[in-house]
Amino acid sequence: AELTVSAAASLTNAFRELAPLYEAKHPDTKVQLNFAGSGALLQQIAKGAPVDVFASADQVTMNQAQEQGLIKADQRSDFVSNSLVVIVPLQGSGAPASIQDLAKPAYERVAIGLPASVPVGRYTKSVLEKAGLWAAIEPKMIGAQNVRQALDYVARGEVDAGFVYATDAAIMPDKVKVAFTAPTQDPILYPIAPVASAANAGAAKSFVDFVHTDEAQAVMAKYGFGKP
Amino acid sequence: MADAWIPLALTLKVAGWATLLNLIFGVALGYLLARTRFPGRDLLDAILTLPMVMPPTVLGYYLLVLLGRNGAFGAWLQSTFGINLIFTWQGAVLAAAIVAFPLTFKSARAAFEVVEPQYEQAARVLRIGEMAIFFRVTLPLAWRGILAGLLLAFARAAGEFGATLMVAGSIPGKTQTLSIAVYEAVQAGQDDLANFLVLVTSLTCIVVLLVAGRLVPGRVPGQS
Amino acid sequence: MADAWIPLALTLKVAGWATLLNLIFGVALGYLLARTRFPGRDLLDAILTLPMVMPPTVLGYYLLVLLGRNGAFGAWLQSTFGINLIFTWQGAVLAAAIVAFPLTFKSARAAFEVVEPQYEQAARVLRIGEMAIFFRVTLPLAWRGILAGLLLAFARAAGEFGATLMVAGSIPGKTQTLSIAVYEAVQAGQDDLANFLVLVTSLTCIVVLLVAGRLVPGRVPGQS
Amino acid sequence: MIWDVALRKRFEGRKHSFELDLRFQSNARRLVLFGPSGAGKSMTLKMIAGLETPDGGHVRMNGVDMFDRDRRVDLSPQRRGLAYVFQDYALFPHLTVIQNIAFGLHLGLLNPGRSLRHEAVRRWIQAFHLESVANQYPEQLSGGQRQRTALARALVAEPRALLLDEPFAALDRPLRKRLRDELARLQAQLDIPMILISHDEEDVAVLADEMVRIEHGQAGQASLLPARARGGRSEPEAVQSTREFDWINSTL
Amino acid sequence: MIWDVALRKRFEGRKHSFELDLRFQSNARRLVLFGPSGAGKSMTLKMIAGLETPDGGHVRMNGVDMFDRDRRVDLSPQRRGLAYVFQDYALFPHLTVIQNIAFGLHLGLLNPGRSLRHEAVRRWIQAFHLESVANQYPEQLSGGQRQRTALARALVAEPRALLLDEPFAALDRPLRKRLRDELARLQAQLDIPMILISHDEEDVAVLADEMVRIEHGQAGQASLLPARARGGRSEPEAVQSTREFDWINSTL
Ligand SMILES: Nc1ncnc2c1ncn2[C@@H]1O[C@H](COP(=O)(O)OP(=O)(O)OP(=O)(O)O)[C@@H](O)[C@H]1O
Ligand SMILES: Nc1ncnc2c1ncn2[C@@H]1O[C@H](COP(=O)(O)OP(=O)(O)OP(=O)(O)O)[C@@H](O)[C@H]1O
Ligand code: MOO
Ligand SMILES: [Mg+2]
Ligand SMILES: [Mg+2]
To answer: How far is it, in rounded angstroms, from Cα D198 to Cα D175?
Structure first.
């Protein structure tokens, strides 16, 4: 049977490695991975796309799915954690020591995921608002369509700093360096759940269980994700 | 990197079908608007151009609303024919065809408009029916302009990913076209893979465009 | 919702300039390829069509690589003229112009190809220079086809957001165009805002297309 | 009555307008429309063929209504079945000479092939000396070759009647004479009515039984030409006998 | 020597090819090219005007090289400054009659306006009876009106020489006579050489000093016509004096 998993774009590399492992254990199941921004994935499911498992990058999106009755709420769980970091180009001169430093004129441009639609932007905005810096930083903001675009901007030296997940920063250690971790109010936890209308409910549940196994967690850790 | 083959085949299939749909509907509507006058003709023309103006993702969203199991048209398709277009390559065809539609339509209309009506009249007095006149006189004389539009439509359909991603998803081997694969490679920071896939895309399209350009005779032999 | 005004104005500015660039380069290259023969002409034609085939985000990525502070061309621009295109509306213009370029180019080439060379010869024996012939004979006779292409290019430029977003960043009031705003609203699930912005976009484009269509006379008065 | 024609049509130009309002009847199998440039001859012929719609009036041939404003009859050009040779040829630019001539013989959705299949096409190509250009496109033809191709294209379909708008204008003298004779012979063979626009008095002399004079959009009644033997007459005689047309010289 | 022309050119058709290889010299201010359809007359005139490039040979006018393959001279049509009236008119479809005629008087990047500004344009419009259609587009003209517009367009620019490809073919007889006389008078006034292609013996009679016969792509030497008074001669006389052209009837 086929099992369709819709996963947030930031899970791309890790889930591509997970799928064969799961298939090895369940030879009669073929995993089909579908990656996009969490928001787009939610809309697809809401409009009736044949999805069995939904893994989102943030709680807000999963909450919306739950409110609309799209997922099996009783089988929802958080399976990895991530952290928000500030990165700067590797060749750049110095790095900010704290979030306050970003307000200094030396940092002309800061790449941030678009707060309205990108989860990482949402986290960033709340961190900056809590620090009372949003008004100062917003004019410097270069909006990114997703987290990887922000990463690209920093890697190419087009901006002076950027907010990304630790997992993204880990992809390009030769181009960016992590200045510091920005503490978020709530921990960044990735939720996963079987879709309510899943054609393959048994397999969906078994996949959700699978991502919690040590074997799967080891793979996730390789890509920089933490335990929930 | 041999993986490029499957998305490539899928891309050609999706773009090919989308171009075919464009050929039929774009030419028909282009002809209609070139040759008939009715109130609201210009407005209809502008509306038919709108898919070009919408960001593809947004278009994809509206398609999703329309075609989804819970959408007006999707529900009807499902209950009547048992067809579901979401997350299928046929859905990708539809999305790509709609995004590319204005290209064929506009080119076809412009091409039909410069065909001298006198040639059609000459065919009429030779007792050739209107349908045959269209296929034997009007269409061949407008063909160059239409072809230019079709090639653009093919290219656009092959490169489309915003609307396609929304409607068909990005399922490797099933709905993941080359351009979605490129997009994901760029997103994943796999620059080498991205460059390779871009090369494959470019070469394929160059070959298709070159071959298609060859298939069509010049306006008249002996002309440059 | 009055917020729509600023991105709307920006969209019109960006699409307008992009169309202007298209007019100049698309018409020039379309003419060149329609009227001269050289080895590799068909190849050049296919290459000039490639921006259509690339997913815009990918195109934007390559533009970033080229035009960025550390990019080959960007570094030269910066050191020579002190110009930086990344994250400016001019950068958005460039991205939109490149994405839309094949539309104008292909239409222009097809339109020039159907102009009877005899009209140009008639002008030549009347001692009119080649440049004046182009503007007084060739261009007016090809104008309908070119205009169809330009309108498509305008629509595409107005709707572009993948490449634009990449090159220009989405700086509210500075580089956030209407289609980026629509995209965000859709992504954020703000359906009402999205619908409203789509309405604004659609109406604006319909008005622009209608007005532009009016400005141009039909092929000849008395013709339908 | 072979031809019973009454036509009204108004063209609005930018500053001037042109108004056509004429009627004529004729029993002549060979009728010529004659008159100064811009008088409305081509327009009249087009309305007879059904290529322009008159504002009012009627077109009747052998008692059959082809157009009648009042009775709401308006046959399509196809159903009228009148062959038409255009003043500027209107050859299909994407077809060779052979294909152009064979065009009306194929009724399907495809154009005739490039090879010579039809006996009738072969015959007309020979009659009009088009062998050497049979595979060329209109653009590659001389003016005369174009017109001969147009003529052959109209004739090959064996139409119900033949409408010719200055068919010999671009031809040289010997060819004109030859084609004129060919046409006269054909006329006798096929036994179909013919209307011809011409400025050439010799055309009138050899090809016309009656003549309708059109001027400023108006027609005089068809005037019978002096009785004469059809076909071969010596040239000077023909020139002589057309002196009667010198009225034209005084009208302009 | 006014005209010294030697031309070689090969056209490759699909099955047949056409080869032109001719030379002629003439001191006639009024030269006519005469010959059967498809012989290469239009082609020759186009090569003289610089609109087609010969494979070899030369074109000299009044001793000035306009084209010489061996000396690598090839003046552009603009620099040759020879007015040309096309066999199928080639009127600009996007311009009115006034604009078409005024076309060559404006050298800038813009087309002339729709209003009558130039005295010369007004004069030619009157001379050719085009007043009533002055603001119409070519598509709205009768065949004769189109040709007269083309003629006026060529003449208004006061060219160095005048090349006319069957300029009177589509005209009716009185108009043809009138324009022919007008042209003859203009000829005398402007004092420029003229080459004319015609099948019409009366054209030859009234407008030609010498005649070059072209057949199968080859030309005989220019043959002087019998001495005659230029301009006004009565018609029958002209017709009479062209009997000498009856050779054509025997060649085909
Ligand atoms: N592009 C071409 N390819 C092949 N043959 C051509 C081409 N253009 C012209 N020809 C041939 O060249 C010959 C000469 O043509 P041209 O137009 O000079 O004839 P012409 O003497 O002016 O005849 P007419 O009196 O009928 O106008 C014709 O037989 C024509 O078929
Ligand atoms: N669309 C139009 N708008 C305005 N006037 C027009 C239009 N079409 C034709 N005319 C005018 O109608 C008149 C008749 O044209 P027609 O072609 O019938 O003349 P004709 O008798 O065939 O002349 P010729 O012998 O020169 O071919 C002309 O004066 C022409 O200017
Ligand atoms: O992985 Mo996301 O949904 O692009 O932040
Ligand atoms: Mg006429
Ligand atoms: Mg000729």
So the answer is: 16
